[in-house]
Write a structure and sequence with these properties.
- This protein is of the alpha/beta class.
- It is built from 6 helices and 5 strands, in the order E-H-E-H-E-H-E-H-E-H-H.
- The protein has a 5-stranded parallel β-sheet with strand order 3-2-1-4-5, with helices on both faces.
- The protein is globular, with a radius of gyration of 15 Å.
- The chain starts with a strand and ends with a helix.
- The structure holds adenosine-5'-diphosphate.
């Protein structure tokens, strides 16, 4: 079975991430979404909250599984027997970082290959970071995330404000 891992912080999951999930789920027999518990960036949601939001967002995709992980992504990829790692590439912002990480991951785990899917045009400028910024300022986010994520965001920023 061809298994792929789509790792990320998903703080929170957006429609841009979901677009990548649906496209990757068509390419591989099984797609595992890996929610990285402890990224070095500052987070709005806890690991459990991020995991639950991702789970809810993909309940209707039969060949997608969601797991959280810590430590090296390549170690998690080995554990779940992934053949490939999936990442999304937005114009300008992602390429250099993904390239650098891919080179390092290749050193650490030569048998794992990286598959990058170009972000769809309508999600090119969508990031969890900008989404959180807009939500914290009371802007409309409903067309950018699933309903349960929009609600969780409003609740979270409301409790922080
Ligand atoms: P990380 O902290 O690992 O970058 P993110 O949750 O920010 O985790 O992103 C996970 C992956 O999804 C990355 O490959 C990122 O480039 C990709 N991604 C993020 N937003 C989008 C989007 N709007 N369209 C396509 N891919 C995206």
């Amino acid at each position: 079975m061809t298994v792929a891992l789509y790792p990320g912080s998903f703080d929170p999951i957006t429609n841009g991430h979901l677009d990548v999930v649906h496209r990757a789920a068509r390419l591989f027999e099984k797609l595992i979404i890996g929610v990285f518990e402890t990224p070095s960036k500052s987070l709005l949601f806890t690991a459990e909250e991020r995991l639950e939001m991702v789970r809810q967002a993909v309940v209707d995709v039969p060949n997608v599984e969601v797991q959280s992980y810590s430590g090296l992504t390549v170690d998690f990829a080995r554990k779940v027997k992934a053949l490939a790692m999936v990442r999304g590439l937005r114009m300008g912002s992602d390429f250099e970082w993904e390239f650098e990480m891919a080179m390092m991951n290749k050193q650490l785990c030569p048998e794992l290959d990286l598959v990058c899917l170009m972000a769809s045009l309508k999600y090119q400028f969508l990031s969890s970071t900008i989404l959180k910024e807009v939500a914290s300022l009371g802007g409309k986010i409903d067309n950018l995330v699933p309903k349960h994520v929009a609600e969780a965001l409003r609740k979270k920023v409301g409790s922080i404000r």
